[in-house]
Specification:
This protein is 50% helix and 0% strand. With 60 residues, the protein is mainly alpha-helical. It has one domain.
Length: 60
């Protein structure tokens, strides 16, 4: 099965973008969140991803 980049429905802090990226890459979501904190254009990149990454399937 091919892994698709989607917002996480289970690993959310705000919108699930970092959790979705972490699930796609197979790494810790904490590491992705730290990268977004230290990146210079973090807010702009995050906002673009919020509106472009599709929502993941709902969890039970």
């Amino acid at each position: 099965m091919q892994n698709k980049l989607r917002k996480s429905s289970t690993d959310k802090a705000l919108t699930g973008v970092c959790g979705g990226i972490a699930e796609y890459l197979g790494v810790s979501s904490l590491g992705i969140r730290i990268l977004f904190i230290i990146l210079p254009a973090n807010l702009l990149i995050y906002l673009i991803l919020v509106f472009t990454i599709p929502d993941g399937p709902p969890s039970l």
